[in-house]
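Human: If only I could read backbone structure tokens as easily as an amino acid sequence. Take your time, and here it is.
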Amino acid sequence: LSAAIRLTIEILTLGRLQEIAEGARIKCFFDSQYVISLISGKTEPKTNIALALLARHLWRVAEGYFQMEAKWITGHSEVAGNERADYLSNKGGEGAREHAGYDEKSLEETL
């Protein structure tokens, strides 16, 4: 869930900075069918309710600007980019933003 939230915030940030054109088609790849089901509203969260609802809300906000598509990929299967995404997701905290390609200032301006 936290990776979905970070990804959606990054997309919204880049859109606000006009690095992604409004109406652009954006495919997001997740290795969790549960997360896709949560953000799409097909499943109601039973744990981490506030976090799940935040992820769903941010996804819906992004859908208002972009053509968002959530796709499932198998986790830990050497799919190009997935290992890097897992690394960034697990890294969290200090320094992760510089590796993900956005900075704290642009994130704060968006929020």
Observations:
- Confidence is low (pLDDT under 50) at residues 93-100, 102-111.
- The chain has six helices and two strands.
